[in-house]
Write a structure and sequence with these properties.
50% helix; alpha/beta; Rossmann fold; four-stranded parallel beta sheet
Length: 373
């Protein structure tokens, strides 16, 4: 079946995204909020860097062990394991750790294209929009300098439309997954999202369309009544075997605010006077992200709204070891959800976690708790 073959393709890409040599020069970018459409419009392949579960060998000498697990593993990935895969980098500076990391990164890749993208963290400031517009301008000029090619307005619009279309089809898949979790599991859906960040967008969209066409005509029963709806919050789910446990205990993710999830796929650019304005408007309309906000309590408002609007019975929060921005948010969020009587399960992992067996009992207990509600 087309569907099974496509999902297998997405799974294989997520497990080993470096197995094939792309036809374009590859620009690695770190999450989050870097406008990948600009990179695509310049004729390059935007390729998300999302850490590694391989052993840490080199970064320990550069970054303390109690620094963000994601930052450490991402730098380890490019220094030790995939140094030759990338032709350049665009690094997002969203907190103190990533700012320090970007300096280390730049010094070790002086022979590659390198650009720091510093988006404003406090979006409510009057200067924030002007700041972001300037960052877009600087990135555009840097890419043009690297490629020797001017990014024309119509080319950028074409890239925006392509990325918008891919996200719209991912939203269709999400809707099917919410209604029919036996048809599209948690892991299958989020692998489709992650694969879109690691593939040629045209190829991903082509496969995704065929999958959804087949899913919409499928006559398989969905077994939705046996599943318990939950909301998944945080930044990343790593390792992906966590999704296997959610599927095993029939916890259906019906809403999320993950970087590799809704924060990405709902980031559709709307019509504007020019493409750079459209990219700016999108940035200021995105949901909460721990290090980027316009209200310190927005994380609480976003999670509770997501919980009530989705019809979920509980919240699962993925906490990355030593992530400074999450550690600011988590105490207030935990206290507020407790006061509201909203069941909460906090899972703390790092990017070197390979075995999730210890989580099994906690997830099973959470499922039983929700089943009694």
């Amino acid at each position: 079946m087309v569907m099974e073959g496509a999902f297998k393709t997405f799974k294989e890409i997520c497990e080993d995204p470096y197995r094939s040599v792309p036809s374009k020069k590859v620009i690695g970018l770190t999450p989050t909020d870097i406008p990948e459409e600009l990179i695509h419009a310049s004729g390059l392949l935007p390729f998300w860097i999302m850490g590694t579960t391989a052993p840490i060998k080199r970064v320990t000498a550069l970054i303390p062990d109690n620094a963000c697990s994601f930052a450490r593993s991402s730098l380890e990935l490019v220094l030790e394991y995939q140094r030759d895969f990338f032709d350049g980098f665009v690094i997002s500076q969203v907190d103190d750790t990533t700012q320090h990391m970007s300096d280390l990164w730049e010094r070790r890749f002086r022979d590659r294209f390198f650009h720091k993208f510093l988006a404003p963290r406090q979006l409510s400031r009057p200067s924030a929009r002007f700041w972001f517009e300037k960052e877009l301008y600087y990135l555009k000029k840097a890419l043009e300098g690297f490629t020797g090619k001017t990014i024309e307005e119509n080319e950028l619009w074409e890239s925006i439309k392509l990325f918008n279309e891919d996200k719209k089809w991912l939203l269709k898949l999400y809707d099917i997954k919410k209604r029919s979790p036996d048809l599209v599991s948690n892991r299958t859906f989020f692998e489709a999202v992650k694969a879109s960040l690691l593939m040629e967008k045209e190829e991903h969209l082509n496969v995704l369309r065929k999958v959804i066409d087949e899913l919409e005509t499928s006559q398989r029963t969905n077994g939705q009544g046996e599943w318990i709806p939950v909301v998944l919050c945080g930044l990343f789910v790593e390792p992906f075997e966590i999704f296997d446990l959610l599927d095993e205990y029939r916890l259906n993710v019906v809403g999320d605010n993950l970087i590799v999830g809704s924060r990405y796929i709902y980031g559709i650019c709307k019509e504007a006077d020019n493409p750079l304005q459209a990219l700016t408007d999108r940035h200021f309309s995105r949901p909460n992200l721990s290090p980027v906000h316009d209200d310190p309590f927005k994380i609480i408002k976003d999670v509770t709204s997501l919980f009530y609007q989705s019809g979920a019975k509980g919240v699962i929060y993925l906490h990355i070891q030593y992530c400074e921005s999450q550690e600011f948010d988590l105490p207030d969020l935990r206290r507020y959800l407790r006061e509201e009587g909203i069941p909460l399960l906090i899972i703390t992992t790092d990017f070197q976690t390979k075995h999730v067996g210890l989580l099994r009992t906690r997830i099973e207990a959470f499922r039983e708790l929700l089943g009694k509600a």
